[in-house]
Design brief:
Blueprint lengths: L7 H11 L1 H12 L13 E8 L9 E9 L2 E6 L8 E4 L3 E5 L1 E6 L19 H9 L4 H17 L2 E8 L5 H14 L2 E6 L13 H11 L6 E7 L1 E2 L11 E2 L1 H13 L4 E4 L6 H6 L7 E4 L6 H10 L2 E4 L1 H4 L11 H7 L2 E4 L11 H15 L8 H8 L1 H6 L17 E5 L11 H8 L5 E6 L2 E5 L2 E2 L4 H18 L5
Parallel strand pairs: 1-4, 1-5, 6-7, 7-8, 8-9, 9-12, 10-11, 12-13, 13-14, 14-15
Antiparallel strand pairs: 1-2, 2-3, 5-16, 16-17, 17-18, 18-19
Helix pairs in contact: 1-2, 4-5, 4-16, 5-6, 12-13, 12-15, 13-15
Bound molecules: zinc ion.
């Protein structure tokens, strides 16, 4: 790129001044230059001798097996591949599996860790992120999303659904997308409203269309959707996140659907499912979040309409009993599509293993064998079913030849894992992000031996801290 040396501000000015040119070659102009070291190249390699969990219902797991990757794609999975002159990655003592697919994560709130308290309502997640969110610059958005994506990759998440409900300007959208692109993660950007936006203000469909034009389709790494304000009353989050009437929902969602884009919405509080059904708004392009208060009738409708539900167990388990319980067993029994998510990382960390562990524990606690739930099913929910939810199961979610190579290697020789018996038992009952040795996205080895291959870890940390402190000063926090 010849424009690498140009500042982002200059580029955005240039994009405006160039007008017609921007409309034709807007992708380069709007996206701006990379702000991180080049991503590692997509090399050809073979992972040798790992315990391979394919998560593909048609391809058996292998106690010992090889995975061949070329040009960013999985070429073959077999007990022993006869390949010469192909770089080998040691898989012995490792579990090889598809990377986790996280289907709902507010990456823009990652900066708020110094301010949020889990045990003090006044400075809980919602009031803090609502107040500080309204002060965020595009640079803050970039640094927050970059911090969150860095944590995602560290925890073995190779696809993230970035639930961006603080798109304050086109530059904020570009900043969030740039951070995802710069770090090399796969994901969907769910373009949202902004914190503090009046409920009667229609979402920015022109901005959404611009992102679609400027950023999609790219290289298949990023896709686009919208995140909606809530429907009807809320008992969690309060008015901070916005509440829409059905008429407003029709306008906001209609604009997205006209662009062929999927939709996600929280159902925090009384269930809006019957209202949405009566208005004819449910469909397979819709993801709901937080399955806590559905009825059997509603679950049957969700199955019929092909709606998926994302559960974020770590945060949901902290909610008061009055707002419902995690209905994983009920949803699976009804045949509703389910996926797993982190939600945010302001007052807990990203840990897909803990997510699965919490779900299993609560299921055993509340339902048990009345609705069977295997550990393998949980790992499938965290991988393949997430890809199904996001509509990208043809690209990721399982170790299937032809799919893109989104693979993680987990050390089974670590103290908390060894000696390993059943690999699913190890993943759900024992593993932690620190056991993840290697993270590969689209054939690029982004992390190896537990370290980033290219990303400047110290810079991510330093600039996140600086941005958080600047926001604190701007907000005159905590006054
Ligand atoms: Zn959420």
């Amino acid at each position: 790129m010849t424009i690498n040396g140009m500042s982002r501000r200059a580029m955005l000015k240039g994009a405006t001044a160039l007008g017609a040119l921007a409309a034709t070659s807007g992708d380069l102009l709007a996206q701006g230059p990379r702000r991180a070291a080049p991503l590692p190249p997509r090399r050809e390699f073979v992972i040798r001798g790992a315990t391979v969990l394919t998560m593909d219902p048609n391809i058996a797991d292998l106690a010992t097996g090889d995975v061949h990757v070329r040009d960013g794609a999985i070429v073959a999975v077999a007990p022993r591949l006869n390949l010469r002159n192909v770089r080998a990655i040691e898989g012995r003592g490792m579990i090889a599996m598809p990377g986790f697919v996280d289907t709902h994560w507010h990456l823009w709130t990652s900066l708020f860790r110094p301010f949020v308290r889990a045990d003090v309502d006044a400075v809980g997640y919602f009031p803090v992120s609502n107040r500080l969110g309204q002060l965020m610059t595009p640079e803050d958005s970039y640094r927050s999303v970059r911090l969150g994506v860095a944590e995602a990759l560290s925890a073995g998440v190779t696809t993230v659904h970035n639930w961006a409900h603080n798109v304050r300007s086109p530059e904020h959208a570009d900043a969030e997308l740039s951070a995802m692109r710069d770090l090399g993660i796969r994901g969907r950007f769910a373009y949202g409203p902004a914190q503090g936006m009046p409920d009667d203000q229609v979402m920015d469909h022109a901005g959404l269309a611009r992102v679609k034009r400027d950023w999609m389709p790219g290289d298949g790494m990023l896709t686009l959707g919208i995140c909606s304000r809530n429907v009807g009353a809320m008992s969690i989050g309060g008015a901070a996140r916005g509440v829409l009437t059905i008429e407003m929902v029709k306008r906001d969602w209609g604009g997205a659907r006209a662009l062929g884009l999927p939709i996600t919405v929280h159902t925090s509080g009384p269930s809006p499912i019957m209202q949405l059904e009566e208005a004819g708004l449910l469909g397979p392009d819709l993801q709901l979040v937080h399955p806590l208060l559905t009825t059997p009738e509603e679950r049957a409708i969700l199955k019929t309409r092909g709606v998926s539900y994302s559960t974020a167990p770590t945060g949901e388990a902290r909610r008061p009993a009055a707002v419902g319980v995690i209905q994983l067993g009920e949803l699976l029994e009804a045949g509703v599509k389910v996926s797993l998510s982190t939600d945010h990382t302001t007052n807990y960390n990203c840990d897909p293993f803990v997510g699965m562990r919490v779900l299993f524990a609560l299921h055993q606690h509340r339902i048990g064998n009345k609705i069977p739930l295997t550990l393998k099913r949980l790992v499938q929910l965290a991988t393949l079913d997430g890809a199904v939810d996001l509509g990208i199961a043809d690209k990721t979610g399982s170790l299937t030849p032809g799919k893109r190579a989104d693979i993680i290697l987990i050390r089974t020789t670590d103290i908390n894992m060894t000696p390993v018996g059943d690999p699913y038992e190890a993943l759900v009952s024992l593993a932690q992000p620190g056991n993840i040795d290697t993270v590969i996205v689209d054939g690029r080895i982004l992390r190896q031996s537990g370290k980033f291959a290219a990303l400047d870890h110290a810079r991510v940390v330093r600039e996140a801290r600086e941005a958080a402190l600047a926001l604190q000063a701007k907000a005159k926090w905590p006054t």
